[in-house]
């Protein structure tokens, strides 16, 4: 390998590839390049030289292209991290013509490295060749996503989800975006939850899918993953989890022009009847409240329903379950066992959903509910309303004058949420007490940011989307079934605070209602 060193000295003294002291003058034929390729079998110094010279003269020896790429790949897998980094750094120089997809495939495999500097270098190299030939690079990435090892697949998907959105428009052309959409659909046939989240993020970021028709395509894609044509097995955590995650993913896509009808219909027909039997996929998640929140957020975007009356009836019956009758009080005081369980967040969600769908059939309570049942319903509404008015006053007094850090204490946070919930319920109950019932009032759901949701209609043409967390698809196919199920963060749907709030609110609500008697 002294010859390799001698070559380096010759080159560094000003020879270069052509001219008086050129590489060709020195060796005259491809045997010289073969010497460089053989350098990968030498020691660290020879390997470092080879890592530089193999790509340097690669284009001059097309007949040795395969051998050169393989030699460089050997260096990319060397035990010496400095040699690996040097070899990876030079890989984009091989990315020309028909070699580019292969280089992309190699770089994608190299994403599995645990060395952070090396990983960043692989990312940089992929970005570099992506700008040269986007489709060729994507071909290598998707090849590994579909056929590669799990760790390579995972990191290739993450690369797409984080890097595509940073590419300039002249790189991410309509043709390239179409290719991404087509290949991503193939991957979505068999994905885990986290993969589904990331891939939908990739698709949501495509420019041509930002239109109404594009968002409708994305909704159709989520519908396919959600298995809405199948009945829900409430005891199957995978099925429940899939529905939750797909609904969360679809939620931001809904608007006045992109309807949530199929999801709302499915919730009313298959989920609400089994609400109490649902098995939560996450230990700390209040699955019933989560379902009701998602239904409430979707309901404003519901279009025409085939079974509107039946779905309203299901909502009505479910609402009765969560709105108790006033406790009997024969002796002037209530026994502890008689205290009703007042679940205000459940009632807020159900009332809101009923209110939204009720707009489509405003005579439902008058024409479709018999007199006795309607009377019973109004008694329940009145019980809630009486207690709410007292409790709202108490909350306002408790929060009066508090600003900044004072509102950030755990107790005051609960009171602020409680005030939003009780105000919403109060407004909706007032609408239903009108004769005939009215559906004109507008409220912002208590867990949604008031400023954003109220300002959005003024800034747009009705294409606002609901808030939601990206979701997950649980694989129906065996190859990915063994993977760990993705547990989404609870975020704004935190069940810990929620359960404490309901308990606190229930006690305070009962005390407030008792003060009226």
How would you describe this structure to a colleague?
- It comes from Pygocentrus nattereri (Red-bellied piranha).
- It is found in: Nucleus.
- InterPro entries: API5, ARM-like, ARM-type_fold.
- One of its GO terms (cellular component) is nucleus.
- The structure is a single chain.
- This protein is mostly helical.
- Helices cover 61% and strands 0% of the residues.
- It contains 24 helices and no strands.
- Helix 4 packs across helix 5.
Low-confidence stretches: 12-21, 23-28, 452-517
Rg on CA atoms, Å: 32 Å
Shape: elongated
Order of helices and strands: HHHHHHHHHHHHHHHHHHHHHHHH
Count of DSSP strands: 0
Helix content: 55-70%
Number of helices: 24
Termini Cα gap? 100 Å
The whole-number mean of residue pLDDT values reads 82
Beta fraction of the residues?
under 5%
Could you give a short account of the major beta sheet? Answer: none
Structural class: mainly alpha
Main location: nucleus
GO molecular function: RNA binding
InterPro entries: API5, ARM-like, ARM-type_fold
Pfam families: API5
